[in-house]
Amino acid sequence: MESTLKEMRGGESVLDLSPKATVGGGVEDVYGEDCATEEQLVTPWTYSVASGYSLLRDPHHNKGLAFTEKERDSHYLLGLLPPAVVTQQLQEKKLMDNLRKYQVPLQKYMAMMELQERNERLFYKLLIDNVEELLPIVYTPTVGEACQKYGSIFRRPQGLYISLKEKGKVLDVLKNWPERNIQVIVVTDGERILGLGDLGCQGMGIPVGKLSLYTALGGVRPSACLPVTIDVGTNNEQLLKDEFYIGLRQRRATGQEYADLLHEFMSAVKQNYGEKVLIQFEDFANHNAFTLLAEYGTTHLVFNDDIQGTASVVLAGVVAALKLIGGTLADHKFLFLGAGEAGTGIAELIALEMSKQTEIPVEETRKKIWLVDSKGLIVNSRKESLQHFKKPWAHDHEPVKDLLGAVKAIKPTVLIGSSGVGRTFTKEIIETVASFNEKPLIMALSNPTSQSECTAEEAYTWSQGRAIFASGSPFDPFEYNGKVFVPGQANNAYIFPGFGLGLVISGAIRVHDDMLLAASEALAKQVSDENYNKGLIYPPFSNIRKISANIAANVAAKAYELGVATRLPRPANLVKYAESCMYSPVYRSYRMDRRHWCLTIPFSLLLHNQQRKIANEI
Ligand SMILES: O=C([O-])CC(=O)C(=O)O
Ligand SMILES: [Mg+2]
Asked: What's the pTM?
């Protein structure tokens, strides 16, 4: 009985004893049952959806004008819609026409959020079919501005808010979420949103945006995704004074109080969803990001996107770029501006890959990699005062106070910006790097666009068209001396959706560095000669579902190899399996059929009785 209740909730049921509509089977039904959780394997073979007015208000099932005459008749919709019946394609065309009329990206963002709340399938259809155009709207850079203004643009809450007020009740808060079969959680505490700093509770835009990409780019069902914001206060004075601020109006809790709330959250997640739910940490400040990953990496399925996802995507770009700049990984010398989550995470994964390729110990390969932070080059004489995650990067060298000095002293072949501070790759710095490299690899990773270390135009112009350039936020193609250069987007969006899908389909219970290398390798392999000819070191996002399936397959294969996969037996063809598991946003047809109706009613009654029983127990 208990399982029936779970299944019906997982099956998006509503408690309604009026005649039920059933949803015809489709690929994603198979996904829900075959690829989701064990419990779902026994899901009743009919889903119930709301009818009438509530069906039009239910974003999971609403199709608007695309409801057919038959569906309108059988689902009590007659008169509730104007007479025209249109296809999903026509709806898509109209929405794209409307979106393109907005001049301001934030208006497009708000229109997309409204669509997500009104008609989820159409939202994902639009996003998947127009990914290159819409990614910068629902994701970086526009999502950054949306977070900054979240208090004013806030309409309906999305995701789950867990604040200090809920201390001791976090499990109850999780139970308030309507979906039961959660596979991926993205959680932030809002302290370091992109390169924009502490945005407190308004950071919610990030987990919401990342999870939209989990579905659109990685094919994880929307109902299996849970965005969470942990609100422990904010140190952002402007927000604390803002009358429209939506979060706790207090300074950030730290130390034991912070650790206790996080611990309660992590325990409640495991208790409520089991050990196969992926918890992705996003945009935590350095001091907490490393601690949380170390603390929960051995007990939970956790992944830090800023440390590990960014590392994997940048390693893929560097490996792909070798075709253009020549040499092996170990032939290159790397210099980073920024020694936080992204910088040290990328550095470590590059050192690890170098070590695997050369069989030289990682302690040695690290010496090819240099990092600069706000106090200058990280060198041995600074070791005592360095934060623990910077210590492995302290090499023998005399002190150097800034990036320009470090560029001159180290003479890197690869320059990577991960400091969160915009416009720090100056003309002099790029000209200096270009003076001793035929083809310097320059990666300006900080987000959003305002925080990028340099623009695409600057990188190409100041290197006289010789730089291989990629950036965290998107830049338009740029023409220099008659040649069009297309900058690649070195953004973890290439990695996390496929990476997460790989964990989900294999039922992995732990993340391992080798899986990050596997994801990276799969991504680098997707770059074609046509891409290279344009100076690209990443494949276009328009192929992202295929890329994600390949990443997922490589990650899942590694999970099986490492013995951390629980979904047995291992599917023979993991790429095909990953593809077959992906959510499709195409509308499902709803039918009314006596056979189903008869079967649906008893389930509903059982559910109804079960709910009543629970209510009595409470
Ligand atoms: O969200 C993005 O675009 C990439 C990312 O994780 C960050 O900058 O923190
Ligand atoms: Mg991030």
From this structure: 0.90
